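pls read this protein.

:::
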Amino acid sequence: MIACCTGGLLTSGVEFESLPAALSLPAESGLYPVTLVGVPRTAGNITVNGYHTSVFGVSSDCLLEGQPSVKTSGCLVEVIPSLPRLQLSTSLPRLETLIFHCSNNHHPCPPQSESL
């Protein structure tokens, strides 16, 4: 196993935080899948243009444009505004199990609880 590489996404458009990815390659692994992720910080359009790597201290940017196996010059994603976060609290005791009983599939049924 060789711990050798770090990488991240190259983007344009809205503010975007590319989360670093560290990679450990097994010996003679051949092609090896890597997942690169990030978090958009604002709403709007973002284009994934490529990825950045650093291998043993040598940095490289690889753009999707011009790659023979990629049909487009980037991946356009629409980022919608974040939804408000809702937090509820109650003084009721926590139930072990919620069981739903329905007699008619056309109307929503209220949950009924049963204790264990």
